[in-house]
Amino acid sequence: MKIKDDKNGNIFLVVSIITIIAILILSIILINSFIDLSKINSNTIESETIQYALDDYKKNIAIIGYESLKEISEEVITTKVPLKDSKKEIKNRIQEKLDLKSLEYLNSQNIHITSHITNIANDEDPFYIDVTVYINAYTENSEKTNYRKTVMEKISIINLKDPLPVLKCGNDESFSYNQTHVNYGNSLANYLKLHDQKNYEYYINASSPFIIKKCIYDPYIQHGIGVTMKNCVENCYYHESADGTCYLHRLEGKGDCLDYGMETFIIPAIHTPNLQATSASDHVIFGYNSYPGTSFTFNTYDGINEVMFLDESHKSKYGLL
Ligand SMILES: [Zn+2]
Ligand SMILES: [Zn+2]
C-alpha cells in the first residue's frame, strides 16, 4: 500500500509539473499574442492617423493651388509684368505654401509630411490646371513605415481674372477694367494699328470679359439659337478652343499657344452690320495670325444693333452661319 501511495504521489507530482509547464507555455503564448495584438492596434491607429493626415493634406493641395493661382494672377495684373515661366512660378508658389502646411502637421500632430511638386500642366479641360505632387509621410514612433504617394489635383481657374488683356493693352492710359469687364478705350485700336490690322478704329471703346467663366451653352453650335449669343456675351463666357490660349500662357502674355486653350469675344462699340475688321475671338486679335471677320447683329434693343466681327470658321463653330 505504501509503495502504491508513493507511486500515486510520484504520478501526482509529475502531472503537477507537466500542468505547471503547460500553463507557463500557454501564458507565454498568450502574453506574446497580446503584445502582438497591441502592437498591431497601435500600428493600425498610427497608419490611420497618417492616412487621415494624408487625405487632409491632399485636400489642401487643391485649396492652396487655387490660392496660389489667384495671388499670381492678381500680381501679374497689378504689375502688368508677364511671367517668364508660369509653370515654374506656380510650382514655387504652391511649394512654399505646402511646406508651411507640412510644418503645421509636424507641430500639431507630430507627423512628418514632405511634398515635392513634380509637374504643373494643363488639364485636358482648359479650365483646370493639373498639379502633381509626390508626398512622403511618417511619424517618429512608426517602425520606419513611410507612406509614399503621388497625387494629381485638378485646380480650377474659374473666377480668376484674365491677365491677357492687361498684358496686351494695359499700359495705355485709356485702358480700364472693373469687376466684370475690360474696357479698352483706344488701347485695342492702337494695338491693332500697330499690328497692321485694317479698320482698327472699329475697336475703339471695345470691351471683353475679365473673369474666367465657362460657357454653359455647350455644344457651342446652339449659340445660333434665339438669344443664346446675347446671353453668352452678357455673361462674359469663355469657350474651349484648340487655337485659343491656355491660362498658363495668358499669364505669360501670349495671345496664342499650341495648347488646347480658351477663347472669348471682344465686342466693339459700333452698331453697324456688314463691316470688315479683325475677327472677335481673343486669340485672333492677340495671336500671331490675325484675320478679318464681318460684323453681324447678335442682339437688337431699342432699334440698336449689338454686333461683333466673326470669320466664317468661328461662325460655323458657334452655329451662326
Ligand atoms: Zn458661349
Ligand atoms: Zn498654352
Description:
With about 325 residues, this protein is of the alpha+beta class. It folds into two domains: about 150 residues, no CATH class; about 150 residues, no CATH class. The protein has eight helices and eleven strands. Strand 10 and strand 11 form a beta hairpin. Bound molecules: zinc ion (2 copies). The site of one zinc ion (ZN) has 6 residues, from loops.
Share in β-strands: 15-25%
SS field, number of helical segments: 8
Query: What does the overall shape look like?
Result: elongated
The N- and C-terminal alpha carbons lie at a distance of 123 Å
Task: Please indicate the count of domains.
Answer: 2
The major sheet is characterized as:
3 strands, antiparallel
The amount of helix comes to 40-55%
Bound molecules: zinc ion
How many beta strands in the DSSP annotation? 11
What is the averaged pLDDT score? 92
Q: Element order, helices and strands?
A: HHEEEHEEHEHEHEEHEEH
Structural class: alpha+beta
Poorly predicted runs of 5 or more residues: none
Quaternary: single chain
How large, in whole angstroms, is the Cα Rg? Answer: 34 Å
Question: Which strand order do you get reading across the main beta sheet?
Answer: 1-2-3
